[in-house]
Design goal:
The chain is mainly alpha-helical and about 70 residues long. Helix content is about 50%, strand content about 10%. The chain is built from 5 helices and 2 strands. A two-stranded antiparallel sheet has the order 1-2. The longest helix is centred in the middle third of the chain and has 11 residues. The two termini are about 25 Å apart. The model has no long low-confidence stretch (mean pLDDT about 90).
């Protein structure tokens, strides 16, 4: 599963959600969905804008966590 660590980077940069929203040009609602790991997708242009605003890389924001394998059922 992909985990979005946007809140961690925002805290490191001491930036509020509303400030990031203004800098990136994304609504607070859409950023909140992303921050709370409810987003199903993100555009590369959005990721690029967030990385520029937070002076970070996609790796700082996105993390892969393997899910526990489910037993195979017939």
């Amino acid at each position: 599963m992909i985990v979005v660590n946007l809140d961690v980077m925002m805290a490191k940069r001491k930036m509020s959600l509303s400030e990031l929203s203004e800098r990136v040009g994304i609504t607070l609602a859409n950023l909140s969905v992303l921050k709370n790991n409810k987003a199903r997708a993100i555009r590369f242009s959005t990721l690029d804008a967030i990385c520029r605003a937070l002076d970070c890389t996609p790796q700082d924001i996105l993390e892969y966590r393997p899910e526990e394998e489910q037993p195979y059922e017939e």
